[in-house]
Amino acid sequence: MFSNSVKYALKAVLYLAIHSSEDKKIMVKELNKPINVPKAYIAKLLQELSKQNIISSTRGIKGGFYLTKENSKQNLMNVIYAIDGDYRMKSCMLSLSHCNQNKPCPLHHIVSPMRDKLIEAFNKKTIKELSLEIEKGITFLPI
Amino acid sequence: MFSNSVKYALKAVLYLAIHSSEDKKIMVKELNKPINVPKAYIAKLLQELSKQNIISSTRGIKGGFYLTKENSKQNLMNVIYAIDGDYRMKSCMLSLSHCNQNKPCPLHHIVSPMRDKLIEAFNKKTIKELSLEIEKGITFLPI
DNA sequence: AACAAAATATGATAAAAATCATATTTAAGA
DNA sequence: TCTTAAATATGATTTTTATCATATTTTGTT
């Protein structure tokens, strides 16, 4: 459902949500170990997220990646779509191109309601909310 | 969530459920076009399913693939696991190896209940039931 | 202004998944 | 028993995804 890249991206964004701010930028080399993702790989993903304004960055000395207040108000789905696009989440489970409510595939009635709920949940949940849950110890972001 | 291979396998199994029987075996070359899957590819998958007793087959002239009554009583999950194994369905959405109810990942509370329901539904639903729905025109198996 | 330290852009390489090809084995029918 | 038509076993090729590498640009500091 998620690509590896999205998994990494989500971990990185949540890490930034917890540890960074406009005054405390985080360099790739500080971030890759705690979230257990190869440095060059996460660097590329962060660059892409930055280009799409999901996260913020500044170059040069004292630079790094960080989340602004605005950034952290974004919902999960924005991060997911930025990396994977929407096909992965939205497409028919059997990849039948004409599958819809009128001409449902054999799995449609099983899968579709749950998937819709999942998408709705991802659309509602913000980065900020998730990061607060981690800070409160409700959820965890380990290896 | 599903590999391409599982998608193809499910389509093929459902096609066999509808069109085959012990008296009416279906050859690869008859089946690949209606379900829109490359011949050599689906052949390999059918061989694997046959080896795992998900479907039945006989070789030689008048041979082909088919489903016995027993075969069609199997549930969806058997087909899925036969091709993809269980990791894909069961693993943490962020691939965190220690994610569980006690140490849930940031997405666990969103994803886990729905995934469990999905797995339950796939475990309950048999090939036969799905194929009946297709035959009744409740669902469709087009391209 | 020059330097150093960071992200950025670009693309190369490696690994995995998807796809294709073919020689071998088996079963039915003449 | 020979031939033919099917699955089977095996593995090669292609495509996609994941991973790694590096030259360039930018920015703060001296």
UniProtKB/TrEMBL annotation, chains A, B:
Pfam hit, one: Rrf2
SUPFAM superfamilies named among the record's database cross-references: Winged helix' DNA-binding domain
UniProt-listed PROSITE patterns: HTH_RRF2_2 (PS51197)
InterPro entries, A to Z: Tscrpt_reg_Rrf2 (IPR000944), WH-like_DNA-bd_sf (IPR036388), WH_DNA-bd_sf (IPR036390)
NCBIfam families for this protein: rrf2_super (TIGR00738)
Name of the protein: Rrf2 family transcriptional regulator
Organism: Gilvirhabdus luticola
